[in-house]
TrEMBL record:
Transmembrane segments: none annotated. One of its GO terms (cellular component) is mitochondrion. This is malate dehydrogenase. Homodimer. Residues 27-169 form the Lactate/malate dehydrogenase N-terminal domain. It catalyses: (S)-malate + NAD(+) = oxaloacetate + NADH + H(+). Residues 171-336 form the Lactate/malate dehydrogenase C-terminal domain. The keyword Acetylation does not apply. It comes from Picea sitchensis (Sitka spruce).
Length: 339
């Protein structure tokens, strides 16, 4: 079954070995490309042999980033787009749109504290995506993801172009962190470890399913609680360490590059591509929920429902506990988009 596939398919490196290099065909747009995430993400994506064009959009400072990146001798052609007048052109003919535009947290803030600024940014950008690249995969990084993805869905519905299989909240960083922390704690080879993380992308809505860790690992209850809390607070750990200078950018760029590369492999016909993502979902009673999914040419091809079966009592309780918060964040996003 899909869950017993080889581990190597899940933990594929974002930089392919020479033997894997194929013709570059896909175009990717990054909205917010001059930011803390946008710059290293653009660099990592520029390294993909699957990409023929990389469109960098931001409201400022994007020309320099583009000039700099364009000197790397990898196939992707870099084009730069500055400000709202050039937004539409940045989206023409692209297969994947990644959105890391918006303000990051400072110490003491929750992700929801970013709502007032970022909700409007995401709404405006997704309106442009709907008008100019309605068939692209849309990957939202801007926080609060629990609300910005429902906002994007509503915008796309209003424009009559919503395809729930092609709208993704990027939660790959939660998986990247879970894999790292579990490997460290249990002294495992990082490349072998895969922990599904479900729910949403804020505080207790981030639920790592440690009982589903591959390879199979035994944890004490203490270890489970410590690891769960560390994974849930990892974003805050970085916000505090940066002490006012922003939130995770490098690990986020790494995680998003992995998600983009997986999407491109799926678009390219690879039949074995799985990632966790926050999507419109019927897995629970909530309309949006992060879980493992199979990616295909048309976007979400399947939701791996078995991950929510046979949960431990702790996981089941945590799942029930996260639902009210996640539901409220979803409703807040929908209300914003419809007001
Ligand atoms: P940043 O401030 O360094 O960069 C944001 C960029 O967005 C800037 O270059 C800015 O000019 C640009 N921008 C602002 N308004 C824009 C608009 N209307 N159109 C286009 N671009 C616009 O912030 P960052 O550290 O890169 O973080 C960006 C967002 O990503 C934040 O909301 C942060 O909370 C979120 N984030 C999400 C995850 C996740 O796991 N999903 C992880 C880390 C950060
Ligand atoms: C993260 O998880 O690092 C991001 O969502 C940024 C944040 O505000 O913590």
């Amino acid at each position: 079954s899909s869950v017993s596939r080889p581990r190597s398919a899940e933990n594929r490196q974002i930089v392919p070995s020479a033997g894997q290099i194929r013709a570059s065909t896909f175009k990717v747009a990054i909205l917010g490309a001059a930011g803390g995430i946008g710059q290293p993400l653009s660099l990592l994506i520029k390294m993909s042999p699957l990409i023929s064009g990389l469109h960098l959009y931001d409201i400022a400072n994007v020309k320099g980033v583009a000039a700099d990146l364009s000197h790397c001798n990898t196939p992707a052609q870099i084009l730069d787009f500055t400000g709202p007048a050039e937004l539409a052109n940045s989206l023409k003919d692209v297969d994947v749109v990644v959105i890391p535009a918006g303000v990051p947290r400072k110490p003491g803030m929750t992700r929801d504290d970013l709502f007032n600024i970022n909700a409007g940014i995401v709404r405006t950008l997704v309106e442009a995506v709907a008008d100019n690249s309605p068939n692209a995969f849309i990957q939202i990084i801007s926080n609060p993801v629990n609300s910005t993805v429902p906002i994007a869905a509503e915008v796309l519905k209003k424009k009559g172009v919503y395809d729930p299989k092609k709208l993704f909240g990027v939660t790959t960083l939660d998986v990247v962190r879970a894999n790292t922390f579990v490997a460290q704690k249990k002294n495992l080879r990082l490349i072998d470890v895969d922990v599904p993380v479900v729910g949403g992308h804020a505080g207790i809505t981030i639920l790592p399913l440690l009982s589903k860790t591959k390879p199979s690992v035994t944890f004490t209850q203490d270890e489970i609680e410590q690891l769960t809390i560390r994974i849930q607070n990892a974003g805050t750990e970085v916000v505090e360490a940066k002490a006012g200078a922003g939130s995770a950018t490098l690990s986020m760029a790494y995680a998003a590059a992995r998600f983009v590369e997986s999407s491109l492999r799926a678009l390219d016909g690879d039949p074995d591509v799985y990632e966790c993502s926050y999507i419109q979902s019927e897995l629970t009673e909530l309309p949006f929920f992060a879980s493992r999914i199979k990616l295909g040419k048309k976007g979400v091809e399947a939701v791996i429902a078995s991950d929510l079966e046979g949960l431990t009592e702790y996981e089941q309780k945590s799942l029930e506990a996260l639902k009210p918060e996640l539901k409220a964040s979803i409703e807040k996003g929908i209300a914003f988009a419809n007001k």
